[in-house]
């Protein structure tokens, strides 16, 4: 019996029956925390909606980044990550759940107008808005939102569904079908994510613009989802699953995390340097708001914590192959992604000082519990790895 055949007969699934109670408790607990968070509407509606948008962007980014890694696997015809791929498929499949998190934001866009200044009737009379009104208007924004959510939800479902069907029939044509589908999907993915980043994040300050904004936001989401992927894999291995995942897999995941850390820094610096050097008032005020008062320390933390520390710690080969160290760096990058999104969204509410109130914490925790419940439900209903993928043996024996 070869290595792959032996591995197939090992623990391939989570104990679904045992996890039912955990999944239910996590889902109920998260829902209760989110319901309690709604009390924030009685305290400060503007803070509530900004905190909700911050949390939504964080979890939406995790799903988007996970879908990117699935698509990249097929576009590049990768083999090394076959053993690991199912876990990003499970996270990406949470898009329909995360879309539900967007409902309060859409409610604000149509009625209360706390988040996006351009939705307010008095602002829609200004010349600066009228120049962009053909794009930034509520009906067109809503139509685009439906397009984004449908595309990401359907694509993530399709890729996971085909992969899971292959677990049953072992037909390699499923892999070939997904590979052929991945090329046009990758183009549409980049196109739609670009406009999503403009609509849901950059238009918070509709007078401001950046030509690398979407790529910058995507790089952060890809790095954060990669970190989540690493943590899930290491967690499963700790509990006795995916035992043939080894230091070579850690090394490759670590190199990817290192690469996206450097790419994030390059884009962040390019955006800042060009805008600051250009010294155009319509552009520089985004950074002025975040470079003074309490937000200056967050900007400094991003330079050190989002780039310098992960870059230096992941530079040696030995640290990328160390299971415990890789988990620590991945946890830190995931945390810094939340800090970065907070830095993007919350200065619109707290212009002078950094504030982290109970609403911001309760909403992100509540969504996190529901998100974790959804992931465990997905992971417990399918095999933990594609047991009949034609490149499974290559992944098990990977060496770099």
TrEMBL record:
Which residue windows are transmembrane per the record? 21-43, 49-72, 93-116, 136-160, 181-201, 213-236, 256-275, 295-313, 325-345, 357-376
Source taxon at top rank: Bacteria
Record flagged with keyword Membrane: yes
**What are the record keywords, sorted?**
Membrane, Transmembrane, Transmembrane helix
Identify this protein by name: Quinol:cytochrome c oxidoreductase quinone-binding subunit 2
């Amino acid at each position: 019996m070869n290595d792959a055949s032996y591995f197939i007969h090992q623990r391939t699934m989570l104990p679904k029956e045992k996890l039912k109670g955990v999944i239910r408790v996590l889902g109920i607990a998260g829902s209760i925390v989110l319901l309690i968070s709604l009390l924030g509407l009685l305290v400060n509606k503007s803070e509530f909606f900004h905190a909700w948008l911050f949390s939504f962007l964080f979890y939406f980014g995790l799903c988007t980044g996970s879908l990117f890694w699935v698509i990249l696997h097929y576009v590049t015809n990768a083999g090394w990550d076959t053993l690991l791929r199912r876990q990003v498929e499970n996270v990406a499949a949470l898009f329909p759940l995360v879309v539900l998190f967007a409902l309060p934001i859409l409610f604000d866009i149509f009625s209360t107008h706390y988040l996006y200044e351009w939705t307010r009737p008095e602002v829609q009379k200004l010349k600066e808005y009228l120049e962009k009104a053909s794009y930034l208007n509520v009906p067109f924004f809503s139509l685009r939102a439906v397009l984004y959510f449908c595309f990401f939800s359907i694509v993530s479902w399709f890729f996971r569904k085909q992969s899971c069907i292959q677990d049953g029939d072992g037909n390699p044509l499923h892999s070939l079908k997904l590979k052929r589908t991945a090329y046009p999907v990758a183009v549409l993915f980049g196109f739609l994510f670009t406009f999503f980043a403009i609509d849901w994040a950059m238009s918070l300050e509709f007078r401001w613009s950046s030509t690398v904004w979407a790529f910058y936001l995507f790089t952060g989401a890809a790095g954060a989802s990669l970190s989540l992927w690493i943590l899930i894999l290491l967690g499963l291995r700790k509990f006795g699953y995916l035992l043939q995942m080894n230091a070579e897999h850690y090394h490759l995941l670590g190199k990817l995390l290192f690469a996206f850390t450097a790419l994030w820094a390059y884009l962040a610096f390019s955006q800042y340097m060009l805008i600051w050097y250009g010294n155009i008032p319509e552009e520089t005020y985004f950074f002025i708001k975040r470079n003074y008062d309490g937000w200056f320390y967050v900007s400094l933390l991003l330079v050190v914590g989002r780039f310098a520390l992960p870059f230096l710690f992941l530079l040696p080969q030995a640290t990328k192959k160390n299971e415990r160290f890789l988990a620590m760096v991945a946890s830190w990058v995931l945390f810094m992604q939340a800090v970065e999104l907070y830095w993007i969204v919350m200065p619109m509410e707290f212009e002078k000082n950094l504030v982290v109130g109970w609403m911001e914490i309760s909403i992100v925790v509540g969504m996190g519990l529901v998100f974790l419940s959804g992931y465990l439900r997905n992971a417990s209903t399918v095999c933990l790895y594609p047991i009949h993928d034609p490149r499974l043996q290559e992944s098990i024996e990977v060496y770099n």
